[in-house]
Structure formats: C-alpha cells, structure tokens
Amino acid sequence: MTAYTGQVFTKNDIPKGRPTMVFLFSVECDHCAHMTEDILRNIDKFKKSNILMVTPFKLERMKAWYDQYKIGNYPNIIMAAEPTRQIVYYYDLHNFPGVYLYNRKGQLEADYEGTVKLDTVLKHL
What we know:
about 25% helix, 6 strands, alpha/beta, 4 helices, six-stranded mixed β-sheet
C-alpha cells in the first residue's frame, strides 16, 4: 500500500495496542462517502482507535479523497492506496465499503460488507 506521502505502508506501520478499523472504500462509492462523513462527524468516538482507510484506486485518486475530506487533520486516520487490489482479494470484498474491526491484540472481531451503521462499528472498538 502507498500512503498519501508516497511512502510504502504495511500492517506493521499501524500503531499497536489499540483497536483498529480497516475501512476499504471506493472513491466512486456514495455509501463510502457517507460513511467517511459519518466517521468524521463522530471522530471523538474513535479517539482510542486506529482507522486505516484503504482504496484499491491509484494514489492520485486517493489523494483527491484525502484532500476533500481533510484527512490530514485526523491523526488516528491513515489513508492508503492499494491499486494491486490484493487487499480486496484478501478480504474477499464484493461490495463497498468493507469494514474490518480488530481488537487491541490484532484479532479480527467483526467484518461487514456494504453499508453498516456507525453504532454497530463502535460496539467493537
């Protein structure tokens, strides 16, 4: 994966010891846009969690999303582009968004494909 800065990013770069939400999104998905807006409106509820937002689109497309939503203002959000789509295959995602919730030990607790309510997500973080 490639972060906004162009640096290569791996799972080892995610801060340890905190719950993590992996949010797979498409830059062409209205549901993904709405979920991003919901997360940002409720960012205080995520302050003890990591949020990893990953798109299978090229870095340039991701940067437009990053800039539009001012992701740089949120220190607990990491955004990356993964245009090889390996992460989509890994999670066997068919419909965006994909939400994967890991506990502080790094174990997958829940996963959702398609629209999911924020309250449902927050129960796991």
